[in-house]
Amino acid sequence: MPDRTGRYPEQDEGWTLSSAPGPEDWDNWVEFDAGTWPRKVERRYSLVPTICFNCESGCGLLAYVDQSNGKIRRFEGNPVHPGSRGRTCAKGPATINQVNDEERILYPMKRVGERGSGDWVRVSWDDALDDIAARMRAAIVEDRDDEIMYHVGRPGHDGTMDRVIQAWGIDAHNSHTNICSAGARLGYALWHQADRPSPDHERAKFILLISAHLESGHYFNPHAQRIIDAKSGGTQIAVLDPRLSNTASMADHWLPTWPGTEAAVLLAIANVIIDEGLHDRDFVRRWVNWEEYLSAEHPQAHERAQRLGGSAAGSDGIDVFFEVIQTLYKEFTPQFAAAESGVPEETIIEVARAVGGARGGLSTHVWRSAASGNLGGWQVARCLEWLVVLTGSVAT
Questions:
Q1: For a tag on the chain, would you pick the N or C end, based on fewer CB atoms within 10 A?
Q2: What pLDDT, on a 0 to 100 scale, did the predictor assign at position 8?
Q3: pLDDT at residue 310, rounded to an integer
């Protein structure tokens, strides 16, 4: 491409393309200040690796610290970060706005007026921590521990706080996550106590997304990269979303479900997979607590499964479980799901067979949207993860 004068450089002038400075240059990176063009003014930077904290993804950033005054001038992607690989969405570079925000709180503040008055004074960290600890201790000693609650914004330090406060027998945690993604987390955690699964999208055989908009950094940038890599390699993608987002427009299958009907479609997909024998029978036999389920909910079926060998390798006990599931799912036919969701029955069947055909290699995602802020949102995530389990795509 031409330079600023419109002249094309010759090949022997040594021009090379680079995405970002390598670690060997981070201590003393020199570049011209674009703001002083056409004058050539050198700026020397120390590049400090850090993390973007504008979503749970935690993409790697480089802070460009001006050596002349020690101030951060900008943020760019860290090229050696294993997750984000030097790429960020718009939220990464926008971190500079938070650093320089006039209302950024840089030290502890204590309210001195009535609640809502806006009267605050600066206090030291020691004073703040001593005051908080004394109040908490008094509540515990006086058997008022149910009056203690701690709230965090972006939960980057929950582990430390949880260990300390829960060690005192206090369940007091709250964060923005309880609103924005708790539904999906509950649905996932009911399966395997992991509330944020991280699929291997890049090596997936089929990808099923619910209301995930890769072009807007959601789902998270590292996963978006790998979903695009898989798509480029031939992996098919299906998107359940009422909105024809850019992601949905590039998918192989778009299922514009009516809001609230996602679970019905997912159960219909599971129904087709089981009816057509596309499920991973042995994986479910080995890793799902189906025996406990039958014992609690269907004792006669449990007894029959035990007579057939239970979960022992080579036994037919697991088939009793699938007979029960088929009976339970009898109403969730593709025809029923089509009537509920507005998605054509043929499309649901086609996607179901693609999901079943991806045995051992299905990757999925739902985070907020369909699973957030509504009464049945957790069921969406639960049903979605059931497809992952049903196809034996956990830890594969």
A1: N
A2: 47
A3: 86
Q: What does the block give as tokens for 307? A: 């007579």
Contacts 24+ apart (CB under 8 A), 66-72: 67/28, 68/43, 68/44, 72/96, 72/99
- The H-or-E segment that residue 46 falls in is strand 42-51
- Tens of pLDDT, residue by residue over 347-387, are 999 999 999 999 999 999 887 778 876 778 899 999 999 99
For residues 92 and 94, what is the distance between their CA atoms, to the nearest angstrom? 5
CATH of domain 20-99: 2.20.25.90
For the whole model, what pTM was predicted? Answer: 0.84
Closest to 42 (Cα-Cα) out of 58, 54, 29: 29
Model confidence band, residue 18 (pLDDT cutoffs 50, 70, 90): low
CATH number 3.60.20.30 is the correct assignment for the domain at 192-390 = no
Phi and psi, residue 152, nearest 5°? -125, 160
Tokens at 343, concatenated? 């998605």
Residue labelled with tokens 């460009």: 64
From-to residues of CATH 2.20.25.90 in the chain: 20-99
